[in-house]
């Protein structure tokens, strides 16, 4: 690989990570407000978000093993799809 290609890959990686971090920040900041507008109690909101972050934490290590088996790109894509489906269920919940 040429040095210019490596720098392009690194810059793309940084941009994706920055956008992902900003998305998580907006998600965390607005989810409470969204759930409150659906008339969830604070206990229900905290249980949901606690479970969300616990599952995220517990799946970090297995995702490395899955990435080694199926490839990093496929793992990241499937992770985004699964997370999107989960969030879709949340937003479709009346």
TrEMBL record:
GO molecular function, one term: transmembrane transporter activity
Protein name as it appears in the record: Major facilitator superfamily (MFS) profile domain-containing protein
Record-linked PANTHER family: RESISTANCE PROTEIN MDTM, PUTATIVE-RELATED-RELATED
Localization terms from the record: Cell membrane
Location of the Major facilitator superfamily (MFS) profile domain: 9-94
SUPFAM superfamilies reported for this sequence: MFS general substrate transporter
Pfam families in the cross-refs: MFS_1
Predominant location: membrane
Protein species of origin: Geobacillus subterraneus
Alphabetical list of InterPro entries matching this protein: MFS (IPR011701), MFS_dom (IPR020846), MFS_trans_sf (IPR036259), MFS_Transporters (IPR050171)
Segments passing through the bilayer: 12-35, 47-67
Alphabetically ordered keywords of this record: Cell membrane, Membrane, Transmembrane, Transmembrane helix, Transport
Membrane topology: Multi-pass membrane protein
A GO cellular-component term linked to this record: plasma membrane
């Amino acid at each position: 690989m040429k040095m210019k290609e490596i720098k392009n890959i690194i810059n793309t990686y940084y941009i994706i990570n920055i956008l992902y971090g900003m998305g998580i920040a907006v998600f965390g900041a607005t989810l409470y407000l969204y759930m409150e507008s659906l008339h969830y109690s604070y206990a229900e909101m905290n249980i949901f978000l606690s479970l969300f972050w616990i599952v995220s934490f517990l799946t970090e290590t297995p995702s490395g093993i899955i990435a080694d088996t199926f490839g990093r790109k496929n793992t990241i894509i499937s992770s985004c799809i699964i997370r999107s489906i989960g969030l879709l269920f949340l937003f479709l919940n009346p």
